Amino acid sequence: MDLSYSPEEHAFQREVRGWLARNMPKREPDERPLDFHDPRRIARGKGWQRKLYEAGYVAMGWPRDYGGQGADVMRQTIVNEEMVRARAPGLIGLMGIQMVGPTLIAHGTEQQRRRHLPPILTAEEIWCQGYSEPGSGSDLASLRTRAELRGDEFVVNGQKVWTSNAQFADWIFCLVRTDPDAPKHRGISYLLIDMKSPGITVRPLVQMTGDAGFNEVFFEDVRVPRANLVGGLNDGWTIANATLFHERNMLGSTTRTQQVLQGLLRLARTHGRAGRPASADPAIRRRLADLAIRVETMKLEAYRQLTDTLRGRSPGIAASVSKLVTTELNHDLAEAALDILGSYGPLARGNRRARDGGTWPVDFMFTLGLIIGGGTSQIQKNIIAERGLAMPRELRA
Predict the structure, then answer these.
(1) Catalytic residue among 81, 125, 133, 247, which?
(2) Does residue 136 sit in the same domain as residue 216?
(3) What is the pLDDT confidence band of residue 251, given thresholds at 50, 70 and 90?
(4) Rounded distance, CA 107 to CA 238, Å?
């Protein structure tokens, strides 16, 4: 594997690094990556994504016709790495950019692409995901939200839950049951629904972090144009799996992990224990070294996946491997921070003695949820075993 850049790529890296040095927004002391629950942060997040887009650094590989640049994947990789290096804020429209956008490029109609892709890039329209329901999480195909086709419209009734960012999203990509008599995987369709449609109610769910990033979403006789159907009627499971693949890639991204490791190392160098920095403790140094090795390993795994993409090879189960390992690694990084802080560890936002604005205990709780979201670790292990290693299917009662 050749990890070196070409002269042209080095020149582009210098360009991106210089742009970030000139344009990086001021970072709030207690700001966490991808934390968009405050209205002021939502506005700042949209402004930052728009600025990145105007510079040409958002979804560079998307076709030019839909707002991208048709660039090769290496250029976007360089941008991502430089954003980690600069500790740049995350993108507020990540779900649109990394999940529904690629799905529409592959499976949407030309009208759907032209309508939805450009405002995804500029953050004019933010998306959320309508998959999980009460009783339909890991067994997603058991979902019960109904969509009845009446002429040129679907009428949607039901409930979704654990819907991230629904409280400020403009659109939702949603799985609905359109044929209740078909086998459960075959009677599902994939709809794009305007969150301002009459009949939609959003109720925030307060997490143990104190934030309300998750929501319940209720649909009561919500009318959706048939033109908002992605793929064929009752063929939504195929489209849903395409989106799930992109979601696991998003959750398995090492970008956030590298940023968290940087923060952990800074904490270890600056937090005092027994009159000296925590990083001077041999046990802590060994633990930090182990975590740094794991982060570097996942970074190299991302490079291997990048090589597969450049050479046109199938990604196979790589997304599940990345999602499994990276989400658990993020939780371990936060746990290490709490152990370094000792009795200061539980001090959260608002406490004057809290380190780093009290983000570490919140991050510890938040990353536990990422292990569950997008398919639990147990689900990912089954996928890896059965689809990747050709092991016998798990016996289910």
Answers:
(1) 247
(2) yes
(3) very low
(4) 10
